[in-house]
């Protein structure tokens, strides 16, 4: 469906070092998504987008560049990326499932200082859409320009953010809206989507895909909140990984490595597919959880609702996400898991995940 990517660093990075030059960059993933297990949908060629924050002197809004041209064939992307730096970047390549091929349907979406991306789909969308639209305040209803469930989900997020007491139209203070405020609005958004799906009449459900895959990412220019979520008790979510360290080091042509000189996290990367083939560079985000980046600290919180399983050893079925082309194997994953099915739950080896989270000083509070 899509391949999103987030960069948040203490220092600015040249966009090309992130989205063009790595051997498995997001540009490469647009035409050669080799880590995706479903080879029937190997391309993300239905447009792309890059959003990044510039000098505060230019205002709090991010700069957004989108195009319906496949990323691998856009000369302007290469021109811009080789001359642009930023410390907070959203990038997204698209394989359409909802909405036509148009600039208005390309991620990231933006309102004021807020950017939004999505990988996945909302279950029962043709019945959910009317409910969702009717629930919105007029301002957020009229904000939607395209036809994707992703943009409607963004409108719902803005509506929930406003209902929490924050003003999405305001220029936030230096620290943004606050990571806790963004996370609360995100959880409310997911909760509302689940409520709309439950409200679909039984006689309308036959033959309708009711499972949502909600890998969202939102930022206000200061904090970032990502989700890895599936609206199912037994199925696996779309894949999501993160990597953190002190520098994004180039070791050769197309060869990059997340270097860690100490336990700090000057750089945090989040991606649906790892950008390097170094197994130790990447940590799987747990299913049905949020990942928050605040002042370079990574915090992981479970999303506890009817689809959450409290058992750390519980193994979900990855077939659904696999069929959607939304599961990818981490570098060396088969090595780590031994006899486990490579398409299975990467979190089965929870001890290894806990060691990695401790190593990068992840706050799980």
Key words describing this protein structure:
365 residues, alpha+beta, seven-stranded antiparallel beta sheet, six-stranded antiparallel beta sheet, 15 strands, disordered C terminus
What is the approximate shape?
globular
* Number of strand segments: 15
Question: First CA to last CA: what distance?
Answer: 32 Å
H-E order: EHHEEHEEEHHHHEEEEEEEEEHHH
Q: Can you give the helix content as a percent range? A: 10-25%
Write a structural description.
With 365 residues, this protein is of the alpha+beta class. 24% of the residues lie in helices and 25% in strands. It is built from 10 helices and 15 strands. It has helices spanning 16-19, 26-31, 75-81, 125-135, 138-143, 149-163, 179-198, 319-323, 333-337, 350-359, and strands spanning 2-14, 48-52, 63-67, 85-94, 109-111, 114-121, 213-219, 224-228, 241-245, 247-252, 255-259, 267-271, 283-284, 289-294, 297-302. The protein has a 7-stranded antiparallel beta sheet with strand order 3-2-4-1-12-9-13. A 6-stranded antiparallel beta sheet has the order 5-6-7-8-14-15, covered by helices on one side. Strands 10-11 form a two-stranded antiparallel ribbon. α6 packs across α7 (179-198). The protein is globular. Mean pLDDT is 82; it is low at 34-45 and 332-365.
